[in-house]
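Worked example 3 (structure in, sequence out).
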């Protein structure tokens, strides 16, 4: 499907942009990039947003990140109650269970809780239980299967702290409470309609309506870090630990990884600050885990970036929970030696290769099913196949969403033949959780459970209701769209670069604005080039290496997944002129740096 290419820069007031650049000491290009992401004119005119600070102060916090911008953790509702209960557990040598989700956000949250308790607050290893569900066998959150395993243990925990899950699990928390197990929920997912779980001792979640914490976009790992930071203050005040116990900034490397991998908003000053500081901690290479991944990637003197967290580390850690159990990922992050860490990393890497193969097979099936479905379904795609694997359905949903420009739900079988599991991804303008919730309200017997947020969601569906759900979901999506919407992939660019701007200086200016991610996307440009040569690269046979020329220079370009399948014809030939949408990158190979274009889309110049 041919995408629509739109420039973000077309409606920016140049006078306002110049003032913005001068006030925040930005180059014209940097000012354009930031303005394109924050909606500069709307930002400066939003009186509600600017009640306590000037607009430029708030914009400065986005551009010039600092941990000083982080609000105190005691603004989190229920945090005072939580830290007093955890302090009591530590003081009384109680058994503390750490129950976290199995994705990167959950595993990094687990590492933060464990290292805080063990390394900073003196809790013995035998007083900590590690409770992580299995994606396939248990599903998300405080699942019934996980609760059963907890209660079957010879020694039950006295207290359970969750992270990145629990807000929707009142039924299971009630069962734990009945066995005299206190549960503290820490989470960042949307609170269900019925409210916070009443059986929990505390529910710490910045998305609560009654929570005063000023940023509700933070990841689960950040909620965990904030709680542990407040716990440190409580333990010092109670004289349980020494007043000179170090602060927890040394754990921000885990927060950075979880924040980027969970794709929370990076227009948030808080999220941007913890990612940048966390990367500095990571690049000190104090942990064997970071030493191991650097060795595997053969990075020499190169430093880790947010892009590495999202595309190198994140997928390897996630792959274990997608294909098997997640404990290997926790062992990798917390390994005591380089040898031990490399052992676990190699296992994670094998899982990641298996995940790629599974994803490739699923995509081929899903593409064909999607093409057929679009002949009868206009606004969305709901794809099911008996061969689908639940561990990669979210990735496949994202790929289809990018390909067809529609909200997508991928459904996979479960161990229970009466239930399917699904992952949903969406386009701008469609709140995916709300769309699913509307179907659930209309037909409660169809959807057996769901959760998520604006951009992504998960659900359980009756296996007998797929066709009915497709129709209802399509209507629900349509209600959120504007009449006449032309649904197809949209690529937003930051306009064109002058030939002189295709330089290392421009790359340095763009690096200064990192981190990039959701709602603060990597800069994308467009321009015209002449094709000098083109060839296939990669074992899959669908990536292209293209030599592109401007009037005075020649650049190497890479176009990943340019071909749908191996041996497809090239989209253009030597000597032709193309219009390309691309990212400007710095490539490092055998000790040398060069400028490289990463093509997102290209077509013959009209």
């Amino acid at each position: 499907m041919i995408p629509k290419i739109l420039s973000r820069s077309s409606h920016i007031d140049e006078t306002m942009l110049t003032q913005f650049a001068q006030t925040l000491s930005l180059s014209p290009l940097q000012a354009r990039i930031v303005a394109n992401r924050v909606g500069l004119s709307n930002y400066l005119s939003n009186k509600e947003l600017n009640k306590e600070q000037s607009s430029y102060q708030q914009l400065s916090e986005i551009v010039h990140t600092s941990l000083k911008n982080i609000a105190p953790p005691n603004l989190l509702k229920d945090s005072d109650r939580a830290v007093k209960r955890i302090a009591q557990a530590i003081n009384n040598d109680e058994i503390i269970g750490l129950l976290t989700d199995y994705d990167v956000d959950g595993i990094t949250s687990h590492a933060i809780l464990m290292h805080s308790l063990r390394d900073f607050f003196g809790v013995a290893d035998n007083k900590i239980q590690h409770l992580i569900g299995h994606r396939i066998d248990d599903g998300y959150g405080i699942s019934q299967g996980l609760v059963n395993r907890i209660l079957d243990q010879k020694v039950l925990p006295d207290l359970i702290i969750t992270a990145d899950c629990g807000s929707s699990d009142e039924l299971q928390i009630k069962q734990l409470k009945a066995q005299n197990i206190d549960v503290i929920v820490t989470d960042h997912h949307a609170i269900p309609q019925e409210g916070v779980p009443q059986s929990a001792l505390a529910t710490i979640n910045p998305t609560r309506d009654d929570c005063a914490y000023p940023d509700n976009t933070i990841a689960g790992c950040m909620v965990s870090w904030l709680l542990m930071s407040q716990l440190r203050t409580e333990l010092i005040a109670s004289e349980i630990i020494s007043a000179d116990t170090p602060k927890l900034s040394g754990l921000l490397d885990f927060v950075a990884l979880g924040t980027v991998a969970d794709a929370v908003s990076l227009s948030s000053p808080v999220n941007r600050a913890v990612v940048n500081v966390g990367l500095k901690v990571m690049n000190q290479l104090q942990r064997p885990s970071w030493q191991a991944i650097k060795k595997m990637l053969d990075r020499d003197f190169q430093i880790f970036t947010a892009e590495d967290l999202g595309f190198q580390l994140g997928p390897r850690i996630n792959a274990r929970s997608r294909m098997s159990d997640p404990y290997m990922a926790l062992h990798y992050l917390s390994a005591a030696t380089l040898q031990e860490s490399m052992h676990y990393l190699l296992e994670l890497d094998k899982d990641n290769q298996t995940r790629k193969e599974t994803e490739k097979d699923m995509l081929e099936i899903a593409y064909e099913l999607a093409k057929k479905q679009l002949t009868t379904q206009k606004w969305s795609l709901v794809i099911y196949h008996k061969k689908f694997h639940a561990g990669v359905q979210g990735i496949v949903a994202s790929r289809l969403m990018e390909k067809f420009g529609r909200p997508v739900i991928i459904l996979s079988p479960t161990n229970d033949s009466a239930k399917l599991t699904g992952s949903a991804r969406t386009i701008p303008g469609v709140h995916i959780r709300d769309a699913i919730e509307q179907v659930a309200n209309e037909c409660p017997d169809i959807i057996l459970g769901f959760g998520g947020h604006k951009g992504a969601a998960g659900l359980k569906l009756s296996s007998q209701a797929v066709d009915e759900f497709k129709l209802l979901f399509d209507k629900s999506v349509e209600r959120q769209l504007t009449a006449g919407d032309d649904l197809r992939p949209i690529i937003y660019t930051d306009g064109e670069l002058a030939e002189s701007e295709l330089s290392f200086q421009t790359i340095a200016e763009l690096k200064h604005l990192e981190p990039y991610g959701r709602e603060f996307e990597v800069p994308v440009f467009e321009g015209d080039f002449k094709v000098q040569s083109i060839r296939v690269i990669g074992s899959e046979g669908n990536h292209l290496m293209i030599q592109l020329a401007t009037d005075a220079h020649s650049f190497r370009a890479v176009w990943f997944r340019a071909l749908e399948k191996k041996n497809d014809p090239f989209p253009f030939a030597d000597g032709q002129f193309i219009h390309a949408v691309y990212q400007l990158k710095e490539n490092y190979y055998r000790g040398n740096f060069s400028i490289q274009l990463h093509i997102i889309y290209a077509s013959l110049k009209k």
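Notes: The radius of gyration is 25 Å. The first strand starts at residue 4 and ends at 7.
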